[in-house]
Amino acid sequence: MTRKPVEFQLLTSDSGNTCEIFPLPTDEAFLKELLTYIFETYWREIVFGPMIQGGAFEFQCPNAPTKIKLFDGYLTVNFGNPGTHFHICIGENKGSPKKPTPGELQRHRKTSQAEFFRNLDGSGAPVAWGARFFNGKGEQQMSIFFPSPFLTDEQQIAEKPDWSRLAMWKDLSWRYLCREPDPKDRSGTRFSHG
Questions:
Q1: Cα within 13 Å of Cα(159), Cβ side
Q2: Does the reported pTM lie above 0.90?
Q3: Distance of alpha carbon 85 from alpha carbon 65, whole angstroms
Q4: Residue range 106-134, pLDDT digits in tens
């Protein structure tokens, strides 16, 4: 069976920034595989955390995950240091037999929207790449920013684009979107954000 490439949808944010969205499945098995692959393979390269109006939380992994497990709908990524872990609800959170999670709360907590994205500059050239996840009420659970050719490992503006930093985007685009490398990814000249 031949897979068809996932097509993007154009989205303009409240602040007027334009983004291309590539929808992803939201079933528990897919999200577990995707997040495990990203954190085990690319832990050195990603920046992650929730991005909400008025707040941006950008974390880098201290080391490779020591354990990734799924329990009661929550995927836990643990880095082995005391307190260094996070949880994201990607499946059905049933609760305990004595205290089951109400159905409405289950739907609120669980990832209901997952997507890869490319943020575009004013000319329509990609300047940032990543993945983001939203719960059942459309609240952002987490963004994962992939390496950008316009930023250094320290998240500083690069003197000139390093196109090799698109390797993660190319890998994930092929693996999960069935998309060939896109020349548009190399059309930008500098980093910008809204």
A1: 0
A2: yes
A3: 9
A4: 999 999 999 999 999 989 999 999 999 99
Alpha-carbon distance of 172 to 105, in angstroms, equals 31
Nearest-10 Cα torsion for 75, 80, 81, 87 = 0
CA distance readout (Å), 42 to 39, 47, 108, 137: 6, 10, 29, 29
- Tokens 């693996």 correspond to what residue? 175
Q: Is the CB of residue 30 less than 8 Å from the CB of residue 125? A: no
Q: Which residues of 45-72 are buried (b: 16+ CB within 10 A; e: fewer)?
A: bbbbbbeeeeeeeeeebeeebeeeebee
Task: List 55's β-bridge partners, or say none.
Answer: 52
Mean pLDDT over 138-145 rounds to 96
d(CA 189, CA 127): 8
- Residue 152 in tokens: 């250094």
Tell me the C-alpha distance between 181 and 171, whole Å.
9
Task: Report the run of H or E that residue 1 belongs to, with start and end.
Answer: none
Residues 6 or more apart whose CB falls under 8 angstroms from that of 127 comprise: 119, 120, 121, 148, 150, 188, 190, 191, 192, 193
Query: Where in the chain are the domains?
Result: 9-58+115-186
- Determine the pLDDT at residue 4: 85
Q: What pLDDT, on the 0 to 100 scale, is given for residue 189?
A: 85
